[in-house]
Design a protein that fits this description.
Order of helices and strands of chain A: HH
Largest sheet of chain A: none
Number of helices of chain A: 2
Oligomer: heterodimer
Number of strands of chain B: 0
Number of helices of chain B: 4
Strand content of chain B: under 5%
Radius of gyration of chain A: 17 Å
Structural class of chain B: mainly alpha
Shape of chain A: elongated
Shape of chain B: flat
Distance between the termini of chain A: 26 Å
Number of strands of chain A: 0
Order of helices and strands of chain B: HHHH
Helix content of chain A: over 70%
Strand content of chain A: under 5%
Largest sheet of chain B: none
Structural class of chain A: mainly alpha
Largest interface: A-B, 29 and 34 residues
Chain lengths: 65, 128
């Protein structure tokens, strides 16, 4: 849980956008869609994990007594 | 100083969200979620400290423990509702955000009904 995760997600996002553009110019649209999807799934996994952790902690904090 | 770190993280995250918004807006939304979650994580120690002090105070004064638990629960529901409704609205689905807010209000009301009923009972007893 350090601040690097924000930069990681930003880097994945920029990388995905760049690769998308390159593959579109090279006329390989399907691979472009696949890489975009892969990047999205990767980031989504990271985010869902963090949100689950947050809501678990909030549940304990606000309702345990 | 924790506040400096938190505001720095907020500004940097906002900048990264701006970078990603025009090319990959879905990634920008996820990055915003991660940033806000991260800031909340940094606040959890302070929040638990405050809640412990409030718990000790109410124990000393003699307020019913269940009542305080209900108040904390309502605060938690309110906070989670506002957190998610803000994220949903920022990603463009304002109608969904309103539905989440309505759900939060109804659930808070449903949870506080026993207290309201016992208040009415008390008033009825006093009037007899």
């Amino acid at each position: 849980m350090d601040i690097g995760i924000i930069f990681k997600i930003a880097a994945v996002g920029i990388l995905t956008a760049v690769v998308n553009q390159i593959l579109k110019k090279a006329d390989k649209d399907e691979i472009a869609t696949l890489t975009t999807l892969a990047g999205l799934v990767m980031v989504l996994l990271m985010v869902v994990d963090m949100i689950a952790q947050l809501f678990d902690t909030l549940k304990i904090l606000f309702e345990m007594y | 100083m924790e506040i400096i770190r938190i505001s720095a993280i907020g500004i940097i995250t906002a900048f990264c969200v701006l970078i990603l918004k025009e090319s990959k807006s879905e990634m920008a939304m996820l990055l915003g979620i991660v940033g806000s979650t991260f800031i909340i994580f940094m606040l959890l120690d302070y929040i638990s400290g405050i809640f412990n002090v409030i718990k000790n105070l109410t124990q000393r004064v003699g307020i019913n423990a269940d009542l305080l638990k209900l108040v904390f629960k309502v605060m938690g529901i309110g906070f989670i509702t506002e957190f998610s409704a803000d994220i949903i609205e920022e990603s463009g689905s304002k109608s969904l955000a309103t539905k989440v807010v309505i759900a939060g209000k109804i659930i808070i009301f449903a949870i506080s009904l026993p207290v309201i009923i016992s208040l009415f009972d008390l008033i009825a007893e006093l009037m007899v």
